[in-house]
What does this fold into?
Amino acid sequence: FVSVIPPEFSKNILKGYKAEVQAQIDGMFNYRAAMVSGYVTAINAHYNSELMQQWAMKSQGMTSQALSNLISPVKLETHYLYNNELKSIWSTGTGLIVLVMLVAPALLAALGVVREKETGSIFNIYASTATLSEFITGKLLPYIVISYINISILCLVALWVFHTPFKGELSVLLVANFFYVAAAAAIGVLISSFVKSKAAAALISMLGTMIPGIMYSGLMMPVASMSAEAVIEAHAFPAMYQLEVIWGVFLKGQGWAELWLNIVILIGFLLLFWLLAVLRFRKRVNG
It folds into this structure.
């Protein structure tokens, strides 16, 4: 941000003439640029109000209180909902749970299945009587259990270490956490069907989950402030729905009435990724 003040600025103000100031704002990041523009506009309006008050007090002989009541008849009282102490750790701390538990289950599941490919033990499925759906489900269950324990521990850390308030229904959080980590693990199994090395599985899992988790979940920027294309991408990934659940039950005091649709969508993601993984492995068997 650069403020350009012309040489005759002070003289014009003292003579009662109009003075112009230029604000140059970096537009590379539109969200930050819009926020800075709002601050600059508010500062300019406040300075203009002070100049008007000084002029009126000198020319009209009005008191500062009477002039303040005349210029600003409406008094604004700001109240912060859901996080009235404005503690960022309450929102970012719980929001990072969503990011961590999207990346970790996918990475673990992808590496676990690919390791069997590298060692050749995965070919045992060809000689067994287990169907591919049973095989995929069996591969998912251990990672779901481990990840569910992990996300439960992280939620307890948010409560006991960060002292984040919990205002909603516990059952909503428990159910949503299960289907969220299950969907994340299913992403990992699906990724493992496309690669043959652990290095490729790790890279794709990290990039394929971390970038959407950071950019399109609403953690860094509200989804409503994103472009139309970004909003579509946000709704096409489970992180946004789980973040609404986490913040809803921790900070907003929401329950099943408000968040049931998010849980249904998380179940839909789980079924979708599971089905795609089954189809991918079926194609590799037939091929």
Observations:
- The radius of gyration is 28 Å.
- The mean pLDDT is 85.
- Residues 81 and 153 are 27 Å apart (CA to CA).
